[in-house]
Amino acid sequence: MKMSLMVDGLRSDVEAVGDLGDDAVAEAAGRIAAVLARSAPSRLLDLLSEAAAEVSAELPEGRVELRVAGDDVELAYVEDERVADGEADADLSARITLRLSEGLKARVEEGAASDGVSVNSFIVRTLERGTSAQMNRSRSRRGGNRLRGYGTT
User: Fold this and answer.
1) Residue 97 lies in a domain
2) Which of 26, 39, 78, 132 could be 18's S-S partner, Cβ–Cβ 3.0 to 4.6 Å?
3) Which domain holds residue 87?
4) Structural domains of the chain, count
5) pLDDT at 83
6) How many CB atoms sit inside 10 A of residue 75's CB?
7) Do residues 126 and 114 make contact, with C-beta atoms less than 8 angstroms apart?
8) Has residue 123 been placed in a domain?
9) Which residues pair with 74 in a beta bridge?
């Protein structure tokens, strides 16, 4: 579905209400419509994301994903997959909503495709590695000035 069609429809509905009154009412309705047009896309995405999460929670297998590409918004059913280390997706029950720039999203999709895994698995694996590395750095800072690795002379 095109999000701009929803936003334009909402805007024209508010402006039509303004046409029922005098010039001051029409001007106020125009201002309200402009504010709604700016905030409605993110509100619609939040609503669709919550709906997808609620439907996914009721499904015995798989999940519903919200996919956004520019102005196009799509709800898609995705069957459960096994993550790289053998855990089932059902074991991964925590959810977050993540907004990315188009460039970063493209790089994530490219990395997942080159690894032959889903975008979700790629993100989970990347976060696991990043947080493990961070924890190791934190532990080594607490341990003093210990050096690890190999050296050559």
Assistant:
1) yes
2) 26
3) 82-145
4) 1
5) 40
6) 14
7) no
8) yes
9) 67
Tell me the C-alpha distance between 97 and 137, whole Å: 28
Is residue 78 a contact partner of residue 62, using CB atoms and an 8 Å limit?
Answer: yes
Q: Domain containing 138 — which CATH number? A: 1.20.5
Pairing mode, strands 63-69 and 72-78: antiparallel
The C-alpha atoms of residue 14 and residue 33 are separated, in whole angstroms, by 6
CA dihedral 126, 127, 132, 138 (to 10 degrees): 130
Q: Which two tokens stand for residue 116?
A: 């032959």
Six-digit token string for 106: 């493209």
Dmax over CA atoms of the chain, in Å, equals 87
Distance (Å, whole) CA 121 – CA 80? 11
* pTM score: 0.48
* CA gap 123, 68 in Å, rounded: 17
